[in-house]
Input
Amino acid sequence: MADTLRPATAPYSEPLLPQLDVRNPYYTDLHHNLRATVREYVDTYISPYAAEWEEAGRVPEAVRRRHCKLGYSIVHPLTSEEDSAGLSLPGNVPREKWDTWCSLIVSDELTRVGYVGVIWGLGGGNGIGCPPVARFGNAEQRKRWLPGVARGDIRFCLGITEPDAGSDVANIQSTAQRDGNHYIVNGSKKWITNGIWADYCTAAVRTGGPGRSGISLLVIPLATAGVTRRRMHNSGVNASGSTFIEFEDVRVPVENLIGQENKGFPLIMSNFNPERLGLACASLRLARVCAEDAYNYALKRKTFGSALIEKQAIQSKIFKFGLMIEPAYAFMEQLVNILELTKDRPSDDVNIGGMTALLKVMSTRALEKSVREAQQIMGGAGYNKAGKGARIEQISRDARVHVVGGGSEEIMAGLALREETKAIRTRRKALEKRQSKV
Ligand SMILES: Cc1cc2nc3c(=O)[nH]c(=O)nc-3n(C[C@H](O)[C@H](O)[C@H](O)COP(=O)(O)OP(=O)(O)OC[C@H]3O[C@@H](n4cnc5c(N)ncnc54)[C@H](O)[C@@H]3O)c2cc1C
Output
């Protein structure tokens, strides 16, 4: 445990391993120090103002700029020094030492704020819109966009969802027709996080026939003639800038195509696994926030002559936080460990896409049940936008987007089963091959 971290104040409010002074397979001192750095930053510069920014519907520009200056806007996976515009990574972690654990810790610690709209307002669009550029963009494209994103000079969003195509990504209708050195884009995108402020949208567009084989990934500049945007108002995540974007004969240079024409679908799919891991991590941290605030409330609130925490029915709810959060968190750590162990392997023979989908469902269910129980423990206070229950009230409105966004629950359940069925066949074949060599 990093000596600078304060001990947990409530059961299940912190992940277990980082609290223990033991050698463990996952976290090193570098990780502990990074956690302490992010925590201090969040406690000092974000948490005290988060409710105000969520209410206002945006994070102040100076705050976002500071966030970028501290390295939180550097796009991952980081392929070259140049991509980070000379900025240091958060906590001054050396570039070659940044791993999936570091990304997990940053996501976990930022989410402690409890106001997801604020976290997404700081860089949610870049977080999902830029990785396709970093992974599949050519050297010129990376140079053109990634340093500017790292510095905070430009912002991205990801445009997949449309009014008539959400889960069914292969059915998107927005078109991009080639006209000399340009594509002419027509169509619309819905619920686009940060879309209202973004300079570019990494968009799924139809360049070919129907289905997945006719889809390309195109970076559309949003300050272009023919683009209109209007803000959408959802139950929660108010500071995330959810946007409806329309494209009418928008001219986009062909140099903005990511990868090859009509080969965009697998690129879009590859973006989903890290996004789902991030959503699972955030869901579990939000569930921990519920555990923390509800427990601390139950310690102080007295009914019928004694503190709530002394009532068995309330203790049972607190215990349930652990029952739901801890197994999912341990499963998440196991998957991150597999990602780290296999990241240098040339072929994707250890497929954990199905397990990541399973994790997302486990984590979001843990969140939905936790926020319900936390609100119940807090009674009326859990329904109030101010005071001790404010974070919980906010989480009760932000929880749903974790269940639906980045692959909705029913879709995740089907995918989890399909992928795991495929994976056991692959594993069986690999085992037979190894045995035949013996
Ligand atoms: C706040 C917010 C932010 C978002 N940010 C972005 C963003 O930045 N970029 C972006 O591209 N998108 C974004 N989205 C969109 C999000 O990814 C979609 O809402 C999600 O993919 C589901 O699509 P849909 O809402 O159209 O639901 P639909 O696809 O219409 O599905 C409706 C319901 O039916 C279920 N369902 C669908 N098909 C089946 C089936 N075959 N069997 C059983 N059940 C099924 C689904 O699970 C879902 O619960 C955001 C959404 C929200 C609410």
Remarks:
- The chain has a mean pLDDT of 95.
